[in-house]
Amino acid sequence: MNFWGRYPGKVDKNNRTTFPAKFREQTGDDNLLIANWFEQSLVILPKDHGSLLIEDLQKESILSPQVRELESFIMGGAQEIELDIDGRFVIPEPLITYATITEKVVFKGGMFYVRLWDIDVCDNYEKITSLRSEDTAKRIALITAKKKYE
Q1: Which of 45, 64, 122, 146 could cross-link 49 (Cys pair, CB 3.0–4.6 Å)?
Q2: HEC states along 92-131?
């Protein structure tokens, strides 16, 4: 399941926002996971897809401090959320704080998840990544080609 698109939203004084209808259709479930993610964003995905977040970590030793750190960052902050009849949910306070979410947010599709950002954080991140996206694509192509011949 891939999520496509960018949808604006608002957070009310009770930290409640509405999950975009398009993404609700795709998940087919009102029980979701929300967790800390990278670049000061949050990740939202169907509860039964939670294992995908740590799949790569499971290939490494839990004796590694880096693995434990990342595991704690993602899983330690993860919480279950349930969408109401209108697709609304409350963003847990620790996650609001981590992502510095204020009133305006944006939901952005990802490979198997949706990212939730404060709009200003997202806009700044997009400005930075747009400047280096071609170089990033070239690096990924080189890594992929190298793995193909290993």
Answers
A1: 45
A2: CHHHHHHCCCCCEEEEEECCCCEEEEEHHHHHHHHHHHHH
Six-digit token pair at 97? 């704080």
Region 7-17: mean pLDDT is 97
Q: C-alpha 91: how far from its chain's center?
A: 13
- Supply the pLDDT for residue 1: 76
* Residue 115, CB-side half-sphere exposure with 13 Å CA sphere: 19
| Residue 26 to residue 34: CA distance in whole angstroms | 16
pTM over cut 0.90: no
State residue 150's pLDDT score.
63
User: What are the φ/ψ torsions at residue 99 (nearest 5 degrees)?
Assistant: -85, 5
Token pair for 133 = 């996206």
